[in-house]
Specification:
The chain is an alpha/beta fold and 496 residues long. The chain is 38% helix and 22% strand. It folds into 2 domains: 261 residues, Aldehyde Dehydrogenase, Chain A, domain 1 (3-Layer(aba) Sandwich), CATH 3.40.605.10; 176 residues, Aldehyde Dehydrogenase, Chain A, domain 2 (3-Layer(aba) Sandwich). Helix 3 packs across helix 4, helix 3 runs antiparallel to helix 6 and helix 5 packs across helix 14. This is NADP-dependent glyceraldehyde-3-phosphate dehydrogenase.
Length: 496
């Protein structure tokens, strides 16, 4: 069970501790935040409700630890990250178990998430050594009117304290995708995990603790958003915010002030299917993209824009595949598991009922038990339905029939979101033209949207985010350029 063996020190009674100053601590608030198991809908774990005073202490120690960490040789930073990665992979089973209980992630996917996270940390250590080990040398006479009297050296230096806020759906992977770049670049890190997923994140942080990072360099504070959320994001001690999640990100960006932001927010990822597409391939990807982890992924297929001439055939193929999906608890690796909270399930139901009232075709019966919603394909969805624009974050997929490629592109671009999109066609020229026309951060050709591999650039346009992720992009984003200029005496042409 989580909390046993190596992880025994991170729990007190039945409440998990928070991590600060290199130690596991209880909050002076004496309060805890319950974590509800989405499957049983009962409290499964409890975490500390940290106070603002405790946040202040964490920020202080993060600032102090960062100063000496920035002077630590790059190879030493990399060595510690490799060590953390190995420990993380070693402890994949208990961490995966937390993911199953906290966010109803199917068991096999939970294990994969932890392994992928270890790989990300290791890759980041290697990439960081390469990126940060290189500077730039400029000479002044390359600009008109100048002699060679100045040599300019640039290097990358850390920003300081990075605040990392990952989302519930990948609480380990999307935490390390912020932690590893921050650390290799010489920053310290304050992690505020999502409530659902906090215990998995605490276990992950313990792996970094076991690797032997300096005290105060890594902190993990848990608590109520209402108590410490704004307090953290507006804290004067924060030098960079890396956030993945939903609407909250827009509120954070308005309050954060002059702090570099890396944000990956929602998506309404469109899938455009042309007449010449391989329909079996399209159907397989739409089902995988739309329904894996119950559609609770920012890169899930959220709307299928299908040419009318192939729509009937494609919808039948999709429905045949949906019929084979297993629905149930995450422990037995069901394809579709309960969505994360009751309020999420209620929101999804609201979108479904709106579509029903407005005449969408239900390809399956709408079935819900608690937080568990059976996969549902809605055909003949029109633009006046909420599901055409809003992100359900659940196993419900709208199909909009289109009569031209332009119509599909127009629908895609009319969205406030612009994270990823995909297009299915056998014509590479058409695919490239459509890709150019789609206002999204990434376009996948003949595959469903996906964030990985984790070293690929990953970014959204419009309300889908600020900045770009992917390992190299994150390292660069968490540093700034420092310039030193050597002024030489005026040239004397007698030399040489």
């Amino acid at each position: 069970m989580a909390g046993s063996g190596t992880f025994a020190e991170i729990i007190d009674g039945d409440v998990f501790k928070y991590y600060a100053q290199g130690h596991w601590n209880k909050s002076s608030s004496g309060k805890f935040v319950p974590i509800i198991n989405p499957t049983t809908r009962k409290t499964h774990f409890k975490v500390q409700a940290c106070t603002q005073k405790e946040v202040n202490r964490v920020m202080e120690s993060a600032k102090t630890a960062q100063k000496s960490w920035a002077k630590t040789p790059l190879w030493k930073r990399a060595e510690l990250l490799h060590k953390a990665a190995a420990i993380l992979k070693e402890h994949k089973a208990p961490i995966a178990e937390c993911l199953v209980k906290e966010i109803a992630k199917p068991a096999k996917d939970a294990v994969t998430e932890v392994i992928r996270s270890g790989d990300l940390v290791s890759y980041c250590a290697e990439e960081g050594v390469r990126i940060l080990g290189e500077g730039k040398f400029l000479v002044s006479d390359s600009f008109p009117g100048n002699e060679r009297t100045k040599y300019c050296l640039t290097s990358k230096i850390p920003l300081g304290v990075v605040l990392a806020i990952p989302p519930f759906n990948y609480p380990v992977n999307l935490a390390v995708s912020k932690i590893a770049p921050a650390l290799i670049a010489g920053n310290s890190i304050v992690l505020k995990p999502p409530t659902q997923g906090a215990v998995a994140a605490l276990h992950m942080v313990h792996c970094f603790h076991l690797a032997g990072f300096p005290e105060g360099l890594i902190s993990c504070v848990t608590g109520k958003g209402s108590e410490i959320g704004d307090f953290l994001t507006m804290h004067p001690g924060v030098n960079c915010i890396s956030f993945t999640g939903g609407d909250t990100g827009i509120a954070i960006s308005k309050k954060a002030g002059m702090v570099p932001l890396q944000m990956e927010l929602g998506g309404k990822d469109a899938c455009i299917v042309l007449e010449d597409a391989d329909l079996d391939l399209a159907a397989a990807n739409i089902v995988k993209g739309g329904f894996s982890y119950s559609g609770q992924r920012c890169t899930a297929v959220k709307v299928a824009l299908v040419m009318e001439s192939v729509a009937n055939t494609l919808v039948k193929k999709i429905n045949d595949k949906i019929a084979k999906l297993t629905v149930g608890p995450p422990e037995i690796d069901s394809d579709v598991t309960p969505v994360v909270t009751e309020s999420s399930a209620n929101f999804i139901e609201g979108l479904v009922m709106d579509a029903k009232e407005k005449g969408a075709t239900f390809c399956q019966e709408y079935v819900r038990e608690g937080n568990l919603i059976w996969p549902l394909l809605l055909d003949n969805v029109r633009p006046d339905m909420r599901i055409a624009w809003e992100e359900p974050f659940g196993p419900v997929l709208p199909v909009i029939r289109i009569n031209s490629v332009e119509e599909g592109i127009h629908h895609c671009n009319a969205s406030n979101f612009g994270l990823q999109g995909c297009v299915f066609t056998r014509d590479i020229n058409k695919a490239m033209l459509i890709s150019d026309a789609m206002e999204t951060g990434t376009v996948q050709i003949n595959s469903a949207p996906a964030r990985g591999p984790d070293h690929f650039p990953f970014q959204g346009l419009k309300d889908s985010g600020i900045g770009s992720q992917g390992i190299a992009n994150s390292i660069n984003m968490m540093t700034k350029v420092k310039t030193t200029i050597i002024n030489l005496p005026a040239p004397s042409y007698t030399m040489g």
